[in-house]
Amino acid sequence: MLRSAILITSLFGGSITVGLTARVYAQVSSQLPPIPSATSPQSPGLEQTFAVQRAMAVARHFLEQQQPVEAVKALESVLQLAEGQPGYLELLRQAYQAELKLWEQKGGTDPRIDQLRRYIDLLQQSPLHSPYLQQLENSVPPKTSSGVAPRAAPSAEAGSSAGKSEVPPVPNVPSSSATSEATGLNLPGGRSQKETALSEAILLFHQKKYAEAAQRFAQVQVEHLSPEHKTAWAYCRIHRALDRLHQKAVNPVMIQAAVADLQAARDLLPENAELRRYAEQALRVAQQKAQHVNASTNQQQSLPVCAEVRPAETASFRVIGPLRPGQLEEIGHDAEQYRQELFERWSGPAAGPWQPKCEIFIYTKADQFTQATGLSPEHQSLAQVKLTEGHVAERRIHLYLGSDEWRRSRLKRELMHVILADLFPQSPPPPWAVEGIVVFSSGPEEVERYQRTIQSKIPPQDWMPLLELLELREYPAERITVFCCQSASLVDYLIRTGGGEKNFLIFLRDSQRYGIAAALRRQYSYVSPAALEIAWKRWVLRGN
After folding, report:
1. Is 171 helix (H, G, I), strand (E, B) or coil?
2. pLDDT tens digit string along 251-262?
3. Range(s) of the domain holding residue 44
4. Are 400 and 363 in contact (CB under 8 A)?
């Protein structure tokens, strides 16, 4: 019995000895293989595996006994050993759900409720799929008794001179159950926002969602991070940088973003010689990659890749480009302001900062913008949002700089594209509505420009029938000017005459539920799309 108590303490770090009796251990232990002898050359790896198996068995027992809090403690105590095993993570999700149900039955507004919901949401998200990420993970060999041996990753580009880079060994990170005491973040009455961010960072790290983990680590003041957490954050940034460098369509701005990550990773733990070696090696790869890109485009970079690069960081944005730090910060500040304003206008206050953050890539050369986006320079901007099972996994805005006024208009336009992914994560609005919304959000001058075009440049006989416009599911390339002008004009009309932006979004959601005709009757009292077409055309031809 004494041996059982000692063994339990060694397996779970003493964090759940209260409430975990020898009887519980005996019940689950009989179903598992014995712990191997310490003389076995494979003992460390096997002990790790068996520790996770026993924790899972204990957690299942507690869940059967309707003790989800103890189940969560058992599972969190071996989080750093589980290495993202799907079965373990699924059981952890079930334990979180059971604990959440317990809290909801009690009622109240305990901070733990929101925290559990966030954890469950994180565990339900699938990791991003990237061919290089898979190669990178495959390049890390299994742990041995002496730790993890690094190994060369695949070359950045077959046949290029970009060279090879090594992936650092995956560090061991303390579980979230050990975070409070180690960091001093614990506050009376519940976890602080920074402690929650750190717990989520650790969870994402063990799920191998390194880019998202890096975002969470960034929310915690560096002085609150243990050396192990700093090492994990550095690993995440190196991982993210290498993923950027190995993308097919890499460009100087993306290289600068990778360099910024690598420099930050190198500086997190100056005394860690091994970490610095990996970061500096990757920086050399970035330099070679930049030379390769410059040679292929016969261009010189406006900002040398070897220079110190520091993106501007705000609560929801990361701004990267060949500008002075003050200019990047100004763009980040504007983006935060526009984000708040647009959320307020269309749906209500934003729920909180974006995670993952929205990356804004700034371009000062037309060819770099084209290389990154595949668009001609006259497009000026592009928004990209990657959704995974209804959750935003990546937000990006590409912006080719013109005048300050033009830049503000384009930034608002692309931000509205990103916001729409938040507001309609499962089923996006139809193209006419999206186009009209982003034009309306760009500002009154932009709306007026579209209205003038449809009034004076496009004869009414060339307009698309309204029902055809409403039923389009793709942008009509052959009639794109007519489509865009009509869409902007129609959305402007419905918003200005029918209750504002928020009511227009209600109309769009009703359209998804009941169909366009029923939604028009419910929100705007039009008996049919034909009735709307008559009223809208009269409004346009009268000059609004």
Report:
1. coil
2. 777 787 788 888
3. 2-124
4. yes
